[in-house]
Each structure stands twice: as C-alpha cells, then as structure tokens.
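BUG: 3D viewer hangs when loading the predicted structure for this chain

Environment: internal workstation, default settings.
Expected: structure renders.
Actual: progress bar stalls at 90%.

Input used:
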Amino acid sequence: MKAMISDNEIIHNAVALVNEGLRVTFPVKGYSMLPFIIGSKESVDLIKPENLQVGHIVLAWVEGCRYVVHRIIRIDGTQVTLMGDGNIAGVEHCRLDEVAALAINVVTAKGKHHPLYNSWRVKASRLWWRLLPVRRWILAIYRRTWLKVVA
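Structure tokens produced before the viewer hung:
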C-alpha cells in the first residue's frame, strides 16, 4: 500500500528546502497564473525570497489558510497584495514574512527552464496588468484555443 503525502506536506518540505538555500522545482496547479504559467502542465523553480518587488511571482501563505503561487501587485510596508495573472478579480494578502519563496523560472513539461524576469516577460506582464478590464475575454479565447493545442 502506498503512503499518501498531502499537498501541505509537500509544500512544507519544499519551503524547508528553500530555507536551506536550495532551489526547488515545484508543480503548479490550477489556471490562476495563465497565460504565463500553465497549471498542471508547468512548474516553477523556487528560491529563497530576497529583494521582493512588485511583479515578482511568489509562493506565499495567504489569509492565514493556504499557499498560492501568484504575482505581487503591491507592497505597502510589510503588507503584500497578490493576484493571479489568470484572475479577473480578487486579491490575496499576506505579510512579507509569509512569502515563502520566489519563483525564478517556469519549467515546461519537457523540463526546459525559462526565466520569469527576462525583458520580454516583464514587459508582457506589465501589459497583461493593463489589460485587466478585458482579461475575461482574452482568457476565454486562450482557454478555448491555445490550451487545447498544448493539451
């Protein structure tokens, strides 16, 4: 009989390794980071969070109840506001000390590592933020077309 490991145990082990200074490749679930990270198909490389900035993608303990991999949209003192790129509304909040890891690469299903903060991805994420009012329709088209192609 196989022993089952809960998602929380996996996350806690990944965070412990990151805190030891190791880089951890971590699978991402769901579609909250579309179009930049495809959940259940891609992963992210996580490192210890240092010099956090607006625009960084992080693994954070939010609202005192769960971990998310989302983008920082605001830092106000020690308070951090996060939002998934694939979300059209709703934000999460945490403190800086609840940011457990910084994502530095997206890892494809074929194992290729692509930097999250090269110039074109930074420009694309800024443009994507400005498109928030029309994201609903762009994401609907994306899910019905591109996601079916990569499935």
